[in-house]
Amino acid sequence: LSCFHSYLHRGRKGLRGTRNSEGLQFRTPAPRQSNALARWQKPAQLPRTIHVFRNGDLLSPPFQLLLPRSTPLQWEALLARLSEKANLRSGAVNKLCRLDGTQVSGAEQLVDGDFCVAVGNEGYKKLPYFELLVPQDSVCRMLWY
């Protein structure tokens, strides 16, 4: 029974007493402060997500690329990451375009949820990427949020 009792009260701090001339005095342990409230008060640094189509490829759906908000990305490093993920037939990604063909010139121009096209050495190919490759139910979900 004493083992069971010690198991139940393990980690609990009881009252601790000290004797002095006035008798027995008790002090209670200080309550533990939780960091949960502090975590909720800090602004969340969730990454931005962009959806990237491969230029001229109407068979592959867009892939997602996470961009950290906390540290600014160097444009060349972003293009290198895009090259790794896109795996274009023409080679490395040299530029990133919006769906209408306008070129994105820096990571600061990218907004969470953007759809872009990774372009290599060839020119941008204006195709109905979004209409053909993005399922309609996901479009409704994106518009809902």
Automatic annotation (TrEMBL):
InterPro entries the UniProt entry points to: Doublecortin_dom (IPR003533), Doublecortin_dom_sf (IPR036572)
A Pfam family of this chain: DCX
UniProt KW keywords: Repeat
Residues of the Doublecortin domain: 48-130
BP terms from Gene Ontology: intracellular signal transduction
SMART domains: DCX
One GO term describing the cellular component: microtubule organizing center
PROSITE patterns per UniProt: DC
Keyword Membrane: no
Protein name: Doublecortin domain-containing protein 2B
The organism of origin for this protein: Mesitornis unicolor (brown roatelo)
